[in-house]
Design goal:
Elements lengths: L2 E3 L4 H8 L4 E3 H4 L7 E6 L5 H13 L5 E7 L10 H7 E3 H4 L4 E6 L15 H14 E7 L1 H11 L4 E15 L13 E11 L2 H5 L4 E7 L3 E7 L4 E4 L9 H11 L25 H17 L13
Parallel strand pairs: 1-2, 1-4, 3-4, 3-6, 4-5, 6-7, 7-12
Antiparallel strand pairs: 8-9, 8-10, 10-11, 11-12
Helix pairs in contact: 1-3
């Protein structure tokens, strides 16, 4: 089934070239079904790239999705044109009266700042509080996960001795949890971050449960036991070359980064990285949409229960 997006969104041509079914809004209104309403708060600087990555994963589900993009009013993007933001994004003020089946809050390159130092922190807190009452299930990614764990449960983040960057093996702790259905006992996923959360802090919160952990990268997937919130510390949505682009960027900045772990063949930055996390990422997003959005939300979102 298709995802419904605005007709001129740049991701549309890329996805169509990959034989992924996207439906324009003009065609979608002729469909006699209710699509799932998903809002994506995109905090990443490379917004068009992130849009494509997330839409690709969402499109693997057989469900029809109606996608909105949200932007922060209290922050001006330096890497994406104002024209793109004004055309394809809505502000929180424009969306606050709406309800959604699902929401994704992305990562952001602000992890070395204290939460209160982020220029849009107060607005983000307002959005996260709003999500408890206006969204059935929320998927938080990387810094977005750290921010939500801190805001909702007081779980702190810690600066790591060195950046966690690469492709890491993970062990599934809860194989019978619906989000992990179909996963192998171990799977791989990308991480790219300077900060992290600790397993012992999460274990202190009775509402939370850890679904998977990496021996080297730490906790990966955390669930609120009520199914309304999920927290991913990594970047399962990343493309094959995303870590390579980040590595080259940091080299050009003179930051002397370490080569991403278990990513380039023979640690050769000129070699093409194997794409070994795509199936797990697809399964993760499909399970979330199926078990925690489609099967749980009421047909009429006005009947949405609150946390």
């Amino acid at each position: 089934m298709p995802i419904t997006i605005q007709d001129a969104l740049p991701a549309a041509k890329i996805l169509e070239s990959e034989n992924i079914f996207v439906m324009t809004q003009a065609r979608a209104i002729q469909q006699d079904i209710r699509p799932l309403k998903i809002v994506i708060l995109n905090l990443m600087p490379t917004k068009i790239e992130t849009e494509t990555q997330l839409l690709r994963l969402l499109s693997y589900s057989p469900l029809q999705l109606d996608i909105e993009f949200m932007t922060m009013e209290t922050h001006t993007s330096k890497n994406t044109s104002a024209s793109h933001i004004n055309t394809f994004y809505k502000t929180f003020s424009e969306l606050r009266e709406e309800k959604f089946d699902g929401m994704i809050i992305t990562g952001a390159p602000v992890e070395l700042l204290d939460f209160s130092e982020v220029d849009y922190w107060e607005e983000l807190c307002e959005v996260m509080e709003w999500s408890r009452h206006n969204v059935y299930s929320v998927l938080h990614i990387c810094w977005g996960a750290q921010a939500a764990l801190y805001y909702h449960f007081g779980v702190p983040k810690y600066t790591l001795p060195k950046k966690v960057s690469g492709i890491y093996d993970h062990i599934v702790f809860a194989p019978h949890h619906p989000l992990m259905r179909g996963f192998d006992e171990t799977y791989r996923a990308p991480h790219s971050r300077h900060t992290g959360v600790l397993q012992e802090d999460i274990n202190k919160v009775p509402e939370l449960m850890i679904l998977s952990v990496s021996r080297l990268a730490g906790v990966h997937i955390i669930a609120n036991k009520n199914g309304r919130q999920f927290f991913l510390t990594g970047h399962s949505e990343y493309d094959r070359d995303t870590l390579a682009k980040e590595y080259i960027r940091d080299v050009k900045k003179g930051l002397d980064p370490e080569i991403p772990y278990h990513y380039f063949p023979n640690d050769d930055p000129m070699a093409t990285p194997p794409f070994v996390w795509r199936s797990g990422a697809s399964l993760l997003f499909s399970n979330w949409l199926n078990y925690y959005v489609y099967q749980q939300t009421p047909y009429d979102l006005k009947d949405l229960d609150f946390i």
